[in-house]
Amino acid sequence: MSKIFPEVVENLPFADIPLKGVTAFLSQGEDHQILFMEFEEDVDLPEHQHESQYGIVLEGKIELVIDGIKNTYVKGDRYYIPASVKHYGKIYAGYADITFFNQKNRYNTK
Questions:
Q1: Spatial separation of the C-alpha atoms in residues 14 and 9, rounded to whole Å
Q2: Exposed, middle or buried by CB within 10 Å (0-12, 13-18, 19+), for 95?
Q3: Is 55 exposed, middle or buried (0-12, 13-18, 19+ CB in 10 A)?
Q4: Residues pairing with 45 in the sheet
Q5: Are 15 and 85 in contact (CB under 8 A)?
Q6: What is the rounded distance in angstroms from the CA atom of residue 69 to the CA atom of residue 71?
Q7: Beta-carbon contacts of residue 8 (< 8 Å; ≥ 6 apart)
Q8: CB atoms within 10 A of CB 45
Q9: Cα(93)–Cα(41) distance, integer angstroms
């Protein structure tokens, strides 16, 4: 995968995300987190829920089923998952995004 994030992002701490093939850089706020993520492998996301999430697709493709509605998002698309709404999906190798979590402790640093 070509380098998508600049050095200033790559100097952020790595996020400890329990998914295979993901590299994620974590920007920690007082009440939220922003992750800059790249996926080298296909990943199936099991159904789960958490605080609200907003994502901007930079490269590749992700399929999400949010509250029972399936959508495919590609470069330039945005998605929003409201708080406590069940969702699952598939992330394809080559996917990259910037994701905002309205939750200060969604992920820890490695």
A1: 10
A2: buried
A3: buried
A4: 89
A5: no
A6: 7
A7: none
A8: 15
A9: 4
Determine the length of the chain: 110
Amino acid letter for position 100: F
pLDDT in tens, 12-55: 999 999 999 999 999 999 999 999 999 999 999 999 999 999 99
Cα-Cα-Cα-Cα torsion 61, 15, 28, 65, nearest 10 degrees, comes to 30
What is the CA angle 21-66-42, rounded to 5? 20
Whether the CB-CB separation of 37 and 9 falls below 8 Å is answered with: no
Confidence of residue 3 (pLDDT cuts 50, 70, 90): confident
The full DSSP string for 64-100 is EEETTEEEEEETT-EEEE-TT--EEEEE-TT-EEEEE
Type of residue at 86: K
Enter the tokens of residue 29. Answer: 């706020």
The type of residue at 57 is: V
**What token pair was written down for 6?**
């600049």
